[in-house]
Amino acid sequence: MHQPVLFALLGLSIGLVAGFPTQEPEGGKHWVLIVAGSNGWYNYRHQADACHAYQIVHKNGIPDEQIVVMMYDDLAQNEANPTPGVVINRPNGSDVYAGVPKDYTGDVSAPTQLFALKCTSELLNQCLSSRLCGPNDFVFVYFTDHGAPGILAFPNDDLQVKDLQDAITYMHENRKYKKMVFYVEACESGSMMNHLPADIDVYATTAANPHESSYACYYDEKRDTYLGDWYSVNWMEDSDAEDLTKETLLKQFKIVRSLTNTSHVQQYGNKTLAHMKVIAFQGNPSKYTPPSPSTNRPPITNPDLTPSPDVPLAILKRKLMMSNDIRVARGLLMEINVHLKYEYALRHLYALVNLCERGYPADSHKTSMQYIFKKCSQLSRINAQ
């Protein structure tokens, strides 16, 4: 065989080895950041998703000191909770709240998440820099909440796409991770990751593309709210059932994309990482025990899929249909009217975002944009209470 051919084959073999990343962080650790950005009983599903995600990574061998959970924590003891102290993520499901760390509760904000992600000192005694992040670490980030084009929502502020991408860039430049994976549950969530560079060892999947809603699921009549989000429960129920030492991130993506038939699940960033095993990010391979076949649960025949923006209205309509009290019915009708105005405002917001994306001058609609943002924010705060 000619020498040039030998060199070519040698280069190809080295390239193939380098192209598929290792499954274990050499000298590093596994870290998990779980964020539920909403509050209020209407938004039950987001914190239920977050609690379920914690149970998965905890059961799969990641110690609590390497898991950071951010959530408002107003469900377990909420006066609307018929099972005090218990949060579920599936009809007749088991409690997912027990044991969840209280790293950051109450008014979790966008800056708090960014400080946590960047591992900077602004968090004082709770700073993640005392625990997180090294150049050999694998990091898994799961976010669940409301969204809009270029925005992930928090109770009193928003996380802008530029700020999130800047934080990821900061982490890369300061060697805060070796490999990092994001799973993002929100409407228009693709808009937060569709500019993710492919050369910084970050891989992301999102519940929807940049222009569509994600969907709530599993309405519970006993609790009068939705228990989960469709993309989220699909990846988590898959992780509960599969042997994650054999399943790749790509396989999980394809399964979730197939099951999530109400929106277009997307993948972004360095897609080579998708060939890594799920356990490399959702657990510790050395401590992981695959689930037995008996743990598989039957699928829910009617998942009650509802666009996320329609959830408050759908809940109110269900309550109205079940009410026999005229005074209660009148109150529900008033609330329905408020939510209809809220949705009307959001439609105008999306129209203005489209104008911005098409390059129309900002001065022509800047004032209207600010006004609608303000009204949407005011109404969403009311709805969360």
Automatic annotation (TrEMBL):
GO cellular component terms, alphabetically, are: vacuole
**GO BP of this protein:** proteolysis involved in protein catabolic process; vacuolar protein processing
Listed A to Z, the keywords are: Hydrolase, Protease, Signal, Thiol protease
One Pfam family linked to the record: Peptidase_C13
- What residue spans carry the Polar residues bias annotation? 294-305
Q: Which residues form the active site?
A: 146, 187 (nucleophile)
Residues annotated as region Disordered? Answer: 285-307
Gene Ontology MF, one: cysteine-type endopeptidase activity
- Which reaction is recorded as catalysed by this protein? Hydrolysis of proteins and small molecule substrates at -Asn-|-Xaa- bonds
Q: Where is the signal peptide?
A: 1-19
EC numbers for this chain: 3.4.22.34
Regarding protein family, the annotation reads: Belongs to the peptidase C13 family.
Q: What is this protein called?
A: legumain
Q: Whose protein is this, by species?
A: Amphiprion ocellaris (Clown anemonefish)
Taxonomy of origin reads: Eukaryota, Metazoa, Chordata, Craniata, Vertebrata
